[in-house]
Amino acid sequence: MWITVRIIEVLLLMSLSGVNAEPVLTSFAPQTITKSVSEKSPKGTNSIAAGNAHKSQKNFFPTLKGLQFAGLFDSFRVASVSFQVPGAMPPASKLSPFKAGGSTPQREAERESVDRLMQSAQASMERGDLPAAAASLEQVLIQDEKNKTARVALINVLAGLMRWGEAENHAQILNKQFPGDTEPTLLLAMIALRRGNPQQACDLANKCLSQGDNRPEVYKLLALAHYLLQQYDKFEAHIHAALQQNPRDPEAHYHLARFFYEGKRYKEAFNSFQEVIKLQPDHYKARYYAGLLYQGMDQPERAKEEFLASIEIIERKKVRYAWPFVDLGRQLVNEGETDRGIGWLYRGIRNDPAAPQAHYEYAKALFQQGATPDVKQELLMAIRLDPGYSSAYYLLARYYLKIGEKQLANEAFARFEEVKKNPTPSPYGLRRW
Fold first, then answer.
1. What is the pLDDT of residue 105?
2. Residue 41 structural domain
3. Do residue 197 and residue 128 come from a single domain?
4. pLDDT tens digits, one per residue of 223-276
């Protein structure tokens, strides 16, 4: 049972936020960790800032706009995640239908082979080699087709590889093999959700509830599905139901906090993010959003503390999440510390080269120091990653005017007007402002 619950958690987090649980912290205490996070600026950013510094905006809470998949949750790239399922693979001898009684040399050999393959799959998942894990698990199922743990783990791996059709086929096999079990139904609901069919996900998750499965995972999946269906009251009700089942679930608190944040219910959002941090101090996304809220409350030093705390965790865990780098850099630039701000913005690009806003904010900061070729390069990269990024076109037009390229400036301005009149969702689910 535990492995299926954990896999449902992992796959839900692919849709939601992708953060593993950490030890409980009994009190909320933001940390300043400047010493543990170096501030090396890239080459060529030591000159004094030129041009007008942007003024800080007080009591301003940015919200996400134009999300492609779910306006509430961060975009997520499977390739950046190692599917670690610690403790999820007990010895195959405990999982296999081979019985101890009546053991024969052939059965012993088969049992040992399954054990080795399961251990190999576990090792592959722990190092992030999903194709190798899939191959090992498929070999297990050839030898032991009713090995539930292996099939559920294979569904997990196939989902990680975004091979949704194969994952669904194995979930259907599991459903036939264990007709009274709700776990295959919940897996099918998860797959439907990830394939962009929230209504089917709702129907399947409700089937789990009707069969008496009221685990928090069922309610969390229902919550996300209802959010995608723009049924926000039901989203909130199901998240609260999940928290009633497990009040110490940091991810449920985080999703509720994000819901409050996007609804501009900032006081409730702040309290919920604090609860997440109490339960899971290494929740770097909650730390980041706490920083944004401190910015909105005109507490810039507390905001910096949370951004730095988030960055320390991100770098320690080696995950891609450029937002705190970007917002810390923006804040420093707005405060007149342009060189330091540029350094953090550059590190945001290094953390996630596919983050359009990191390239845009870096170019914007560099532009204050002059119309260098780096400005153009970063703006073109932001536009390549997000063709609907109107602000990037506008700044690019200003750059071309600055260097005397009036024709190119007119073309960039025209594109800016076109994108502004016909906005398109960001392919990365990112905010633009």
1. 79
2. 22-64+248-313
3. yes
4. 999 999 999 999 999 999 999 999 999 999 999 999 999 999 999 999 999 999
Q: Kindly state the percentage of the chain with pLDDT values over 70.
A: 74
Under 8 Å CB-to-CB from 366, ≥6 apart: which residues? Answer: 45, 342, 372, 374, 375, 378
Rg (CA), the chain: 24
Closest CA to 234 of 264, 267, 198: 198
Residues 277 and 305 in one domain: yes
d(CA 285, CA 310): 7
Contact (Cβ atoms closer than 8 angstroms) between residue 198 and residue 225 = yes
The full length of the chain comes to 433
Question: Hey, what are 241's tokens?
Answer: 């139901």
Query: How many helices and strands (H and E) does the chain possess?
Result: 20, 0
Give the span between the Cα atoms of 224 and 109, in whole angstroms: 45
Q: What is the domain count for the chain? A: 2
- Within a domain: 429: no
Supply angle C-alpha 194, 197, 199, rounded to 5: 125
- Residue 324, SS3 per DSSP: helix
Contact between 373 and 399 under an 8 Å Cβ cutoff? The reply is no
